[in-house]
Amino acid sequence: TVSLGNTFTILAPSMDLLAIYPFAPFPNLQFVCIVISILDFFVAYLLSAEGLLPTARARIFEEIQDAVLVLDHHNNLIDMNPSGAKIIGKSEATALGRPISMIWPQGTDLLATQTEAAPFNGEHPFIVNGLEMTFDVNISPALHPTSRERIGQVIVLRNVTGRERMEKALQERT
């Protein structure tokens, strides 16, 4: 399909330049505009709900190194990526649908800093697999698309432990 699209994008301007009008009753109708419009619809289809975009989004969500935890308005965990499962130490099967306070008590302390009105950005230490690690934390409210009411929140955790250790080592040298 890509080679077919490339053929049309080369063929259409050539036909216009050579004054070959396949639509004889409409000699002023530019073939390029028609072909580009058709190709635009084709690209829009590829990026639609059945095409490339949902697949790309799902793959990014699953493979991103940052932990992503999605909570509903009752602070029940409704989705997480594999990095999130590693941090909270639970599988999706045992964690999804349960209150964050039951499956990850450290998260309860973190959520206490979150107000309904504003997102939270900052660093926070967590114990992961028995080791203290520092994470850059971003908590954003999830809002309903039309009413803009808070329907949950998204927590993104980025491990910055290595950066913290390097900064500390540099400070000790000076």
Task: Please provide a written account of the structure.
- The protein is α+β, with helices and mostly antiparallel strands.
- The chain is 45% helix and 24% strand.
- It has 8 helices and 5 strands, in the order αααββααααβββα.
- The chain has a 5-stranded antiparallel β-sheet, sandwiched between helices.
- α1 (2-17) packs antiparallel against α2 (31-46).
- It is globular and about 65 Å long.
- 14% of the residues are buried.
- The model is unreliable at 1-6 (pLDDT under 50).
- With strands numbered from the N-terminus, the spatial order across the biggest sheet is 2-1-5-4-3
Count all strands and give the number. Answer: 5
H/E element order: HHHEEHHHHEEEH
How would you characterize the largest beta sheet?
A: 5 strands, antiparallel
Distance between the termini: 61 Å
Please sum up the structure shown.
This protein is an alpha+beta fold. It has helices at 2-17, 31-46, 52-63, 82-88, 92-95, 100-103, 105-111, 161-173, and strands at residues 67-72, 77-80, 120-128, 131-143, 150-159.
